[in-house]
Design brief:
717 residues, 4-stranded antiparallel β-sheet
Amino acid sequence: MLGRFVTHRPRALLAAALALFLLLLVAAGGAMDSLSLNRFESPNSESGSAASELADRFDTGAPNIAILVTATGGDVRDADVAAIGTRLTEDLVAYPGIGDAWSFWSAGAPATLAATDHRSALVLAWAPGDADRVRGELLPGIEAQIVESVSDPAVALTLGGADEVFRDVAEQSSADFLRAELIVLPLVFALLALVLRRVTLALLTVTIGLFCVVGTLAALRAVSVFTDVSTFAANIALVMGIGLGVDYGLFMTYRIREELTAGHDVAAAVRRAVANAGRTIAFSASTVGISLAVLFVFPFPFLRSFAYAGIAVAATAVVAAVVILPAMLTLLGRRALAAKPTGAAEQSFWYRTAEKVMRRPVAAGGSVLLVLLLLGAPALGMNFGPPDDRIVSSEQPVRAMYDTIRADFETEEADALHIVAPHAGPNALGDIAGFADRLAAIPGVLRVDSASTADPARFSDGEATWLRVVPTAARLATDSPGLVADIRSTAAPFDVLVGGFPAEMVDYRDGVTARLPVVAALILLVTFVVLFLMTGSVLAPLKASVLNLLSMSIMFGVLVWGFQDGALAGVLGFTPTGSIEPSIPILMFCIAYGLSMDYEVFLLSRIKEDYDRTGDPIGSVPRGIARSAPLITAAGLILAASFAVYATSGVTFLQQLGIGMAITVAIDATVVRGILVPALMRLAGHANWWAPGPLRRFHDRFGWRESVEDTARASVS
């Protein structure tokens, strides 16, 4: 029915599609401004509760804004520098939206707010509110009205703080998005022209990808009205929109060409392709969308943003490839669609390769498996850790500021842990002193500020009290999670909540990793169901999952070897920290798993189609591969090239995503699908399509299968 609809009135359909595209383009135009700057926060965590208590009871919190004051001549104790520092502190205290501010020049301030050589010192401030408010409103105002207003040559000022770091990250990711657009679209067009050997077809396929990107950005803008959507989701929308649009566009175009070669006229060829390839595309898009939808398991806006993007990309790609593209190809006619002769499928490189592999499946498959396992072995050493300023380029002022702090300061006061006791009681001073002593004895604790050691009015309100635990730079750099665990396990005389930036990062990491088994189980279960409905086999989905996980291990191996251990630091220009922020591998896993299953669906659909027609479990494999591998290889390499563009980003997160995904997609679309798949299918034989009786009957009733009746109906005018 859809095929008949597409070919009946293609001009009217394309006019409607153009109107829709223009509406989506208008909506997408404001998408970047509507996206949010998410923090790495864990809702309903101990650190979140500590921050709320600290704000409500004491009007303070962990500083998220900082100004580094550097003396250009003497040191920060000089009268002229001290006057500037004092004025900066007072200006911050009075600035609308700032909850608390203090500095090296404040009364009773710790000496660690200055560098050990006293060449520079810090002004710290806490601003309540969400990241969009702080980064979008407060920081630009503070920069313009306070920092840039100081023109005294005695000092140099640099604005910093955790929110300033991620403001730079957001700005850089937006710039990378625009730059990637300028590179990816021409690059994809050139590669498609080589693959399709028709400039017109290449242009149409790029147009399909562009429709997916615009549609996804418009959807993200709509979602942002109701919830926070990360700015990073736009980067995913660009690459995946182009990638899936190209994948599905190529698949549909190849299938129409096959039908034309079989002797059908253009309208019949389009109907048959929509009937058969359209369902394969729908299954494939389902796996991609569902693989990213599992990110809804996480209660973090940052990760959920990519679920919205993935679902929107999959939905728009199906509409574009199954409805809009066939209508355009119907109007083009046979001459524009005709493929230049390339020889019979049985003479192709991929057919010959599959045949050779299947003659010696153990040797061929085993050797490739060994190589891939070696490439993935570094993944066993993956270490999850918090992000910091080193995710941005060393050329950024905020990065230079923190390089100075790491080199010249005894500690980073902004990374202090805050222990809040909401119900300590009015007579707890003695208990507080003993508790502070126990905390101070923890290895790596530099100082403990509390009502017993500092201003009692600041640290106690008569009922509640709080303590500030300042760690050494060495302990914070080498074992921040261990420090948080030691503090939380220290016996307290009253109920306490431990917060502060190190605790927030630990809670976020734990919140992410705790849900990993659920995410993995959901992805495996859903993809099993989708592939079973398509193939009627129990073994095929299990084999696909194993191969996909093998591809994932390569991706994680690249992350550890190249980024955690720093092997790619010299080439890409980033600074390794010895750890990986946990959200990025999870995001990459969901994207890569969905794309790997995308290629598996294309491959198995052609093999299963041949098997259903011939009943030959061996010969159907190279024939199916010969008909699908050129498409999968072309689409995979184009997508890999699109991801690789982000290797030039100024944000380490995007570099990790770009390099990891490019390598994984390239290997998965060539080595895994071209060698390991035929090797395993040769060994399994008829078992490739086996299912127990009850499941077989279920598939016969509810599953999808190509049939003579399907193709006959598709050819009816």
